[in-house]
Design goal:
alpha/beta; 2 domains; pyridoxal phosphate binding; pyridoxal phosphate; 368 residues; Aspartate Aminotransferase, domain 2; DegT/StrS_aminotransferase; aminotransferase
Length: 368
Amino acid sequence: MSAKPIYVTQPHLPPLEEFIPYLEQIWDNKRLTNSGPFHNQLEQALAEYLGVEHLALFANGTLALLTALQALRITGEVITTPYSFVATAHTLLWNEIQPVFVDIDPHTLNLDPNRIEAAITPRTTAILPVHVYGNPCDVEAIQTIADNYNLKVIYDAAHAFGVQDQGGSILRHGDLSVLSFHATKVFNTCEGGAIACPDDKTKQHIDHLKNFGFVGETTVVASGINGKMNEMQSALGLLQLKHVSQALARRHAIDDQYREGLSHIPGIRLLPRGSQVVDNHAYFPIVVEDTYPLSRDQLYDKLKAADIHGRRYFYPLISEFPMYRGLPSVQAADLAVATEISRRIICLPIFPALSDDDLNRIIQLLTP
């Protein structure tokens, strides 16, 4: 047994000695926040790395998503998925917007475009899809619907750092895309997030909103929020960016090993790799079917007893939490695929520091 428990994700941290010079610079220039030099360097570096025109950094991904909704003045109803982390829908409630949940595709586990149109009402103003596990949504189908009904599209791209399709960055789709740099993500700044902005005017507006609405020293032009990323987070991000290629390569190798070891086990369904040109292997989900000798929860408990802490991600569905149960769109019969998947899914550990020995042990535990 490993000396330490193994969780689904483990923060990827660069060597401490590489971080010290950044700290020394922060101490020397006495600039801790408010668009300091590391903050500005990271915005530019990430925009270049991710292949987007502009990027606005935030203290965390939830604040970024809240602000994206404000920036586009979204009101009324927003169509979204029940199969996501609660922050996706919580940001709607915080903006006094009603979530309208629509079922997911059984293969990609993303919002099913074929079910969106039936959920549109006169109060619908936007669609909020999620690139689940970093696997891109059907962006073309979603955009066609949005254009036909004059709706905005905001992508929750929390899992999609560095993901590309045949045309480039997945973040270029929709009106805005929102990233998370939480400690568990492929790229992290401890906490953090960002909005990919299509043009300079949009970025300027978002920059005002994330800094209380200030323009200059004495002028406030909007009822903004304090969403700024500080210099400590930004410095860590700059250092992480130097190592992210190696981290992604290791994730790819782990994904390959899982697929080789698990693909022939009856009752364990692996999600297909997406059609994207660049995948980030953010998660490794498996679906536990009836032909497997254990139920999903029995397998979860078996792994946990061996100090392997898989995650039933996403379970329960957002639509099953108390603050959403009164909505018309939460009936399990209307969310049949999401309901079924949420009761069968387990995400297995995948992070750069996961050793081959521990990886093989996980595979052995799953083998009947």
